[in-house]
Amino acid sequence: MLESCISRVERVNSALNAVVAFRYQEARQEADAADRRLADEGPDELPPLHGVPCTIKECFALRGMPNASGLRSRADVIALRDATVVARLRAAGAVPMGVTNTSELCMWMESNNKVYGRTNNPYDTRRTVGGSSGGEGAIIGAGASPFGLGSDIGGSIRMPAFFNGIFGHKSTGGLVPGTGQHPMAENEARRYLTTGPLCRRAEDLMPLLRIMAGPDGSDGGCEAMELGDPASVRLDGMRVLDVSPGGAVTPDLLAAQRRAAAALAERGASVERVRFEGLGRSLEIWSAMLGVAGDTPYQTLLENGLPLKLRRELPLALARRSDFTTPSLMLCLIERFNALMTSHNREMIALGRALREEIEAALGEDGVLLYAPHARPAPLHREALLKPLGWVFTAVFNVLELPITQVPLGLNAAGIPLGVQVGARRGQDHRTIAVAQALEQACGGWVQPPV
Fold first, then answer.
1. I need a surface site. Which of 231, 371, 408, 419 has the fewest CB within 10 A?
2. Does 170 participate in catalysis according to the annotation?
3. CA atoms within 13 A on the CB side of 89
């Protein structure tokens, strides 16, 4: 299996630039050891991911591999130990083939940086793969990696999953530790930054999530939670909230969401079309709640010990001569502006908390919601700079801490993936995954790309 995956990576990666550093020699040694163990012990005593190849988002420490997180001043950083979740996957038998590309410091929806360059979409290389787990989305969507590890503070698992036609799960806040990734969130934001799996089959999500979940003693935002079983979820009689978007969405995405709702109705679910007015303030809610949660400004992380002058760097970035990407520098400016809006931020934080209560009350104990993952299917490269707010459809659920599974729903007329977000109350991760499995059966799931 490993050799087949390596061969596929080698075939597609020159076009995609998804895997940015490789560990084939080590992976082959680990696969050989797995074969010997299988021969010696038989199949009954093996760990659940025994010998299964995978990829790891480069912002997670994987011993012996680069850990730059797309920041040029960290280009020489090599991980000395595995991040918590990486260690758990490897203990379960997974064999990492390499690490995958991200946006600069994992804070933009285009996986492009000054260390590794830009990653391209397997369905159309002119288009974005999303960010910041874009390398994962692309290489899994291309059929080269069975599963991967991503992180998500504003849609960084779900947008790449959507744009690349695969499944991705943003877990309940505090379910999976983020220890060992860079940058690491602080304080309450540790619950907004979630770690989770990306894969091509919905049935793989829960086994991977079970391996990843649980406190590690280092991530103070992580807590012990009992995970349910997707097999226990009944669609017959389930309440499905078909949520109207809090912004403009393309007709093909709206139609895909309606198809998903209809597919669940055919299986006995009770579908209700609803609107939550607070979702129209998603950008403000996310910005305010995230902005007050951490202590370290984004610019400090970007500087990495070397002072950065925005007045100098912004013109250089626009001329493509800066060490930093334009979105990162713009985020520094927005951060300064948001810090001045203390009264407005308090109002938005209160609105966000009220919105969470409203949505969870509407969901009840056994409901799910359907919601658009973005304003449009995968945009062309750099288009997001001109239309930068499409990602707010995912971001708001990070600060609400709800579990969300991104589900592929086939391709549009241009051959670009469609999809929908499936959400539930906190702690109901198994419910969103169960619905993802049902929608995969009804709507077809992952579609092989042309690359």
1. 231
2. no
3. 29
d(CA 132, CA 196): 13
**Per-residue pLDDT at 237:** 96
Distance CA 442, CA 424 (A): 20
- DSSP H helical segments within 247-374, as ranges? 251-266, 282-293, 298-303, 310-318, 326-339, 342-363
| Active-site entry in 69, 111, 156, 328 | 156
CA atoms within 13 A on the CB side of 170: 38
Instruction: Categorize the per-residue pLDDT at 338 as very low, low, confident or very high, splitting at 50, 70 and 90.
Output: confident
Bridging pattern class, strands 117-118 and 194-199:
unpaired
**Residues 148/109/427/418 CA torsion (nearest 10 deg):** -80
CA separation, residue 155 to residues 109, 112, 235 (Å):
8, 16, 27
Nearest to 273 by CA among 380, 371, 350: 371
Catalytic residue among 69, 103, 111, 132: 132
Domains of the chain listed by start with CATH number: 2-443 (3.90.1300.10)
Q: What local confidence, expressed as pLDDT, does residue 98 receive?
A: 98
Give the lowest-confidence range in 23-27, 191-195, 307-311: 307-311
Q: Identify any residues that bridge with 239 across adjacent strands, giving them in sequence order.
A: 270
CB 77 within 8 A of CB 183: no
pLDDT value for 327: 94
pLDDT score at 68:
98
For 193-245, list the strands marked E by DSSP: 194-199, 239-243
The pLDDT of residue 255 is above 90: yes
Active site annotation includes 69: no
- Spatial separation of the C-alpha atoms in residues 204 and 198, rounded to whole Å: 9
Task: Kindly calculate the radius of gyration of the chain based on its CA atoms and give it in whole angstroms.
Answer: 21
Distance, CA of 148 to CA of 446 (rounded, Å): 15
Query: Count of alpha carbons within 13 Å of 192, Cβ hemisphere only?
Result: 27
Q: Is 156 a catalytic residue?
A: yes
DSSP 425-441: STT-HHHHHHHHHHHHH
Q: What is the pLDDT of residues 374-406, one digit of tens each?
A: 999 999 999 998 988 899 999 999 999 999 999
Distance (Å) of CA 79 to CA 26, 62, 72, 185, 193: 15, 6, 16, 18, 21
With residue 418 as reference, give the H or E element that holds it.
strand 417-423
Percent of the chain with pLDDT strictly greater than 90: 94
